[in-house]
Amino acid sequence: MRLTDTLPLLRPSILFLVCVLAVAVRLFATQRYESIIHEFDPYFNFRTTQYLTSHSFYDLHNWFDPMVWYPLGRVVGSTVYPGLMVTAGAAHYVITSLLGPLEIRLVCVYLAPVFAALTSLVAYATIAELHSYSAGLLAAALISVVPGYIQRSVAGSYDNEAVAIFALLFTFYSWMRAVRTGALSWGVVSALAYFYMVASWGGYVFIINLIPLYTVVMILVGRFSRRLYVAYSTFWVVGTLASMSLQNILFIPVQTADHMAALGVFVGMQGLMLVLFLQSKMSPPTFRAFLKVSGVGLVVGGLAALLLASVLPGTSGRLLSLLDPLGKHMAITKSVSEHQPMVWTNFFMDLHLLTVFMPIGAYVCFSKPSDGGIFLIMYAVTAVYFASVMVRLILVVAPVACLLSSIGITSLLDTYLAAFVAVDDKGEKRAEEQRSKGATPAPPRGLAIGVVCVVAFLLVFYVVHCTWVSQAAYSEPSIVLSTRSHAGRVNFDDFREAYYWLRMNTPEDAKIMSWWDYGYQIAAMANRTTLVDNNTWNNTHIATVGKMMASNETAAYPLLRQHDVDYILVVFGGFLWMVRISGSVDSSIKEADYMSPVSGRYAVDDSASPTMKRSLMYKMCYYRFGTQQTDPYRSAGYDRARGVEVGVKNIRLRYLEEAYTTEHWMVRIYKVIHPTALSPPPARAKARRALRAARKAAKSSIRAKAAAAGSTRVLTPGQRAELSARDAVTRRIAAHNPFLDLSPALGAAGKSRKTKARATPSRAAKRKARAAQRKARAAKATKAAKATKAAKAAKGGKGGKAVGKGGKGAAKGAKTK
């Protein structure tokens, strides 16, 4: 006996309450903060929606945005999935037409919870189609609060997945209806749902590969039918033609390897139907001969298909990381936290008890195989694999986990609730008759009561867990951070504070450089031109920004001027991926140079490498930080986030100046000094000219004195020291402002040194000069002695003594002279 499927008015009431629950559990963010957009990508979607509502769809189709990816720009119309924007724009048009003016921001904020309610209805319809109405109601209730889906559908999460999960589930529902009924109309509906999915999210590749895989499996297990042929042919033809009408898709479905499986299965099914038709028209011997010939043609066609596949464009980096998670892929792909592998704790947090009941539901579908049940099993297996490779894809697992869990829980309860059938004598007789016929008897009532109570407790615990996760983990907008202290909740609104400062205090044509994570937010909230953003379509441009951040200030300044950067916005801390991404493109950036020689890891304290300490990012993060007392029990310059004291506290900037630092030092903005601002002021230029004239005069005086004395030495040690001191002053001026042309001032010292080198005699000449001086002194001494003797002989006595003294004094004076 199954759960009661009666009371037609009860099911709509339950579905209505489920929809209310799906919306209410996603409103914690708006109640705690305000109606704001979350995360990073939603800000681009919001800005694009504003453009759509203020212009037209034709303008959006041809929109070229020069304010992003400067100086390249971006053709938005051919690089965006417009489904989300068109949905929000259509909803805004309907609401304003019926109820009056409404801000487009409110439509964007509450769009995801509304589509979550619609997804719950589709989940009910899917399981009601495959199993029972009671299981459908349970599936709707489970998916309305599952954390794996809530994380991308809370109020303010204006991302593509907000509508894409609804499109994904509705595509699968209409596809299973088309396979079961074989109706052409349901095939068209599934194709149109697929078209909406293609217009909304790049995850449509999962659909266009899962459905062909399912079709091949159905053929291999012997479940091929004309219903499957009609469903797949209609789905592929209509869906492909519709998707090719999108500007960002065009001929991708028939050109890239991502879509070749669907095309190959379509061609194969046409060949299979042709073979079945010929079999019905040919005799067995003729048909066998035809199979031999067609087998040779099939081999040749397969080789041609492989050759064609070898020249087709390759798959995207994200898809390659899914198919080959251990391979070497672009650093920009690995840097995104959403692309990291899944861990078991994330599975339990996002699915909770569904991780237990999903295998039970898969077992039930496998034990009683049907076309829809086989599809759900294949959907679950492939989705779990991709989610284990990329944590973001838990979003795709959550719907099928709810669908299979509802089947498993309902089947379990149906089995054990059989013990509560009438227990009178007739009931006992019916049980004995069932046992005699080999049917499974009803379980004991005690065991049944225990199982039902455990399942009920787990379901209640599941709702409590989902509610807690929704309000504690997935309702925190990344643009406003919060924490708890002894005084209660503390909000950090530094990002919006910084963007508002940029909007109000910078020129409208200012170019802002930041890491690519914050490009969308700067463009949407500050309305300023950015160099890179979250689109990440140009890895080389992002690597150039990373190189500027990782280089020293002198090497980064020419690149900053080359890209016309006016302001630099940095978020406190964070060096790893700037180095890795820039190093993947420019070989001059080596990650090992930024590792600490002591620990071999990234460090910002005294053990940090010299390259790290000289990098522009390090200087911009910790400029003036050495004077900040962040902890009363620590010295100044203590980084509480990393638990270390910074290695360099007296950081000086030559080409940048601090423009703004937010309240909590989370975001810092620097202005790039223009070369004209680096020119010397008039007073300094005047002092430089005076110094140059003084040096010229001193040099002329020294040369004149040297020429008058007739000495071979042009500069004395004292004179050289004087010139060196003046050179030091000149060089200090040059170090403060390297754009000054001080070569004339320094030229005097250079010329003096050259003059000295030319005037300095050789060693042989010096020896001759010293010998000549000794001979001159000896001749003077001999002459003085003769003069003394002559004086003594002439005067004698005292006079001679005096004369002798005078002669000695004269000799001494001559010696001194």
Q: Which structural traits does this protein have?
A:
single chain, 817 residues, mainly alpha, 2 domains, 11 strands, disordered C terminus
Explain what you see.
The model is unreliable at 422-427, 736-759 and 797-817 (pLDDT under 50). The protein is 64% helix and 5% strand. By secondary structure, the protein is mainly α. It has 34 helices and 11 strands. Helix 5 (83-99) packs across helix 6 (104-130), helix 6 (104-130) runs antiparallel to helix 7 and helix 7 (133-145) packs across helix 20 (394-416). It has a 5-stranded mixed sheet, with helices on both faces. The protein has a two-stranded antiparallel ribbon with strand order 1-2. The protein has a two-stranded antiparallel ribbon with strand order 3-4. It is elongated and about 160 Å long. It has 2 domains: 6-416, no CATH class; 491-672, Rossmann fold, CATH 3.40.50.
